[in-house]
Amino acid sequence: QVQLVESGGGLVQAGGSLRLSCAASGRIFSINVMGWYRQAPGEQRELVAAITGSGSARYADSVKGRFTISRNNAKNTVYLRMDSLKPEDTAVYYCTAHIKTTIYSGWDDYWGQGTQVTVSS
Question: Given this model, what pLDDT does residue 65 score?
Answer without folding.
Answer: 97
